[in-house]
Amino acid sequence: MANIMINLGLEIQEKDLRRLRESLQKMLPNDEVTIRLESAYSYEEDILINELERLGMDYRYYGGKGNDFYVIVRRRLH
User: Fold this and answer.
1) Among 12, 22, 15, 72, CA closest to 48
2) What's the pLDDT at 5?
C-alpha cells in the first residue's frame, strides 16, 4: 500500500486538479492519497470534494494544525 502526499496550498488551480487526476489514476486498490490545502478557504474545499465525488473516490477529511485541511482518498471498492 502506497501513501502519496499532494500539497495544494492556498488556491486550487486547473493544473492542481490535473496533477490530482493523474495521481488518482495511478492508484492501486489499496493505495491512499493524502491531500493538504489551507482550510481558511471553504470554496477550495468544495472544488476538491466535488472533483473527488465526480471521479468516484472514497474520502474522509479533517482539519489539521493551524489552517491545514486534509483529505484522505482511496479508490471506491464496489
Assistant:
1) 12
2) 87
